[in-house]
């Protein structure tokens, strides 16, 4: 059964950093382009960043350019989202999935940026 489990979120002050993780079971992440997404209540889920199978970042939302970066550890079937210089507007629940949201969504991990 395919399952995505995101973790690493939390409460952080503006300017802080977090590193999110997404572990997959029932599939192998290295065969897919992977996206990180986020959603705030009342709004649609938006794509933050997409990473190709070759670990090249193929898309950044303008709002995160220069601050967020993705990577993967294929041996652990895990992808990461390094978030630096966080801003209050980054507050959201973060998810991983294929770049087109092909898989069932995980529970996400809450990121809250506040002073």
Summarize the structure.
By secondary structure, this protein is mostly beta strands. Helix content is about 0%, strand content about 50%.
Task: Supply the key terms.
6-stranded mixed beta sheet; globular; 4-stranded antiparallel beta sheet; 115 residues; mainly beta
**Fraction in beta strands:** over 45%
The helicity comes to under 10%
Secondary structure tally: strands: 10
Q: What does the overall shape look like?
A: globular
Mean pLDDT across residues: 94
Name the helix and strand elements from N-terminus to C-terminus, one letter apiece. Answer: EEEEEEEEEE
Structural class: mainly beta
Query: Counting H and I runs of at least 4 residues, what is the number of helices?
Result: 0
End-to-end C-alpha gap: 40 Å
Largest beta-sheet characterization: 6 strands, mixed
What report would you give on this structure?
The strands form two sheets. A six-stranded mixed beta sheet has the order 2-10-9-4-5-6, with no helix packed on it. It has a four-stranded antiparallel beta sheet with strand order 1-3-8-7, with no helix packed on it. It contains no helices and ten strands. It has strands spanning 3-7, 10-12, 18-25, 34-39, 46-51, 57-60, 68-73, 78-83, 92-98, 109-113. It is mainly beta. The model has no long low-confidence stretch (mean pLDDT 94).
């Amino acid at each position: 059964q395919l399952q995505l489990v995101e973790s690493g979120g939390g409460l952080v002050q503006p300017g802080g950093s977090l590193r999110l993780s997404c572990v997959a079971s029932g599939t192998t992440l290295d065969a897919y382009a992977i996206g990180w997404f986020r959603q705030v209540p009342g709004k649609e889920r938006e794509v933050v960043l997409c990473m190709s199978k070759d670990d090249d970042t193929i898309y950044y939302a303008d709002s995160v350019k220069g601050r967020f970066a993705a990577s993967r550890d294929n041996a652990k079937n895990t992808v990461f989202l390094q978030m630096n210089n966080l801003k209050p507007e980054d507050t959201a629940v973060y998810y991983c999935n294929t770049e087109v949201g092909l898989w069932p969504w995980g529970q996400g991990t809450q990121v809250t940026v506040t002073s």
